[in-house]
Amino acid sequence: MAKLHLINVADTNDADIGTGCAANAGKVKSLFSEIRAITGLAGRDLDISRPELSAADIDRTIDGLEVEPDADVVVFYYSGHGHMLKDGLKNVSEFPGFDYPKAAPSGKPATLDGVAARVQNKRPKLALCIADCCDNVTYSPPIRREAGPPVLEHDDPDAEDRRKSKIRAMFINSTGALVMASASLHQEAMYYNDGGVFTKRLITIFNSPPEPDPAKGDLWHAAVARLKQTIPTTDNEQTAVCNDNIPCQIGSPADKPMALSMVSLPDAPDMVAMDAAAPAAPSLLSRLFHGWLSGAKG
Question: pTM value?
Answer without folding.
Answer: 0.81
